[in-house]
Write a structure and sequence with these properties.
The chain has 310 residues and is an alpha/beta fold. Strand 5, helix 3 and strand 6 form a beta-alpha-beta unit. The chain is globular and about 45 Å long. It has one domain (7-144, 219-307): Alpha/Beta hydrolase fold, catalytic domain (Rossmann fold, 3-Layer(aba) Sandwich). An 8-stranded mixed β-sheet has the order 1-2-4-3-5-6-7-8, sandwiched between helices. The longest helix is centred in the C-terminal third of the chain and has 25 residues, at 283-307. It contains 12 helices and 8 strands.
């Protein structure tokens, strides 16, 4: 008889150690029964449930327990007033992990702003983590692409949910992939139809994000910066790191991933023809690389890249 997969969700209070000592709550979901702990950190103004395709894969792997959460200011988490920073959000994450009892051997995957938060996270407490996958992200201090500025200014003003989700889809995914047929068994004729439908359902079931926290998260992403010296600190920690990007990422420049890989001494995997949202566009391959990163450790990562030319 197959054992049922454990699933829990709830809120954990964070912020209690800060100067202002004004606690607030972060929403999380925890899935799986396995000993390997995988923390998934989502990007700008998106709920943690955007990791659903990755969670679905790891739910079938008895070795893993996954956690995703809503960052401050989005989804079912509280939305404190004021501007945010990625270092502040990393402290939120550490306190969430404390509440979960995840005090060691945690594998981390962060996408976009989630990758920025991940960098600050491992800087704050490197001994707590066992590996780091940085996805479609950068160290900051690079001017945003025109499409990024256009997207951030337009998406907040669009009231029609379908049009808003269509803009999100066309920004995060490459045109060729959106026009292609989805996996066998899908009731949709194109990936675009599938993505727009999935986004529409997700946001319909998620609390509307307050304007102030939309701006606050955008501020955190735009003013994020991890210096070369601080990247060297991460490198010297010996943490196994993998960096991935897509050649058609028009939201965060792929050059940011090349810079991270160079400064961190980490292998870089480039998905030819792929866009910004690699975890949902290239789910099976992305999850395979996660598993290999966790199993091979530091010495086997470059071999992993050589073996998996894309």
């Amino acid at each position: 008889m197959t054992a049922s997969v454990h699933h829990e969700k709830g809120h954990i209070e964070v912020g209690y150690t800060r100067d202002k000592k004004v606690p607030f709550k972060l929403y999380y979901e925890k899935t799986g029964n396995g000993p390997k702990k995988l923390l998934l950190i989502m990007g700008l103004n998106s709920p943690g449930s955007a990791w659903d395709s990755v969670v679905n894969v790891f739910t079938k792997n008895p070795e893993y327990t996954t956690v995703f959460f809503d960052n401050r200011g989005v989804g079912f988490s509280d939305a404190p007033k004021g501007l945010y920073s990625t270092s502040q959000m990393a402290q939120d994450t550490l306190e969430l992990l404390d509440g979960l009892g995840w005090t060691s051997d945690v594998h981390v995957a962060g996408v976009s702003m989630g990758g920025m938060i991940s960098l600050e996270l491992v800087l704050a407490n490197p001994k707590r983590f066992s590996s780091l996958l940085l996805t479609s992200t950068n160290a900051g201090r690079s001017p945003p692409q025109l499409v990024t500025v256009s997207f951030l200014s337009r998406v907040i003003l669009i009231k029609d949910p379908h049009l808003r989700m269509k803009l999100i889809a066309e920004t995060l995914y490459p045109k060729a992939w959106l026009e292609a047929a989805p996996a066998k068994g899908s009731s949709f004729s194109t990936n675009r139809e599938f993505v727009v439908d999935s986004l529409t359902k997700r946001f319909a079931n998620t609390p509307v994000q307050p304007i102030h926290s939309n701006v606050a998260q955008s501020w955190a992403a735009l003013f994020h910066h991890v210096s070369t010296a601080r990247l060297a600190q991460i490198r010297s920690s010996g943490l196994p790191i993998l960096v991935v990007t897509g050649t058609q990422d028009h939201f965060v420049r792929p050059s940011g991933s090349h810079h991270l890989a160079k400064e961190l001494g980490a292998p870089l995997i480039v998905f030819e023809g792929s866009g910004h949202a690699l975890p949902s566009e290239q789910t099976e391959t992305y999850c395979r690389f996660l598993v290999e990163l966790h199993s091979k450790g530091k010495d086997g990562i470059f071999e992993l890249v050589d073996k998996n030319k894309l």
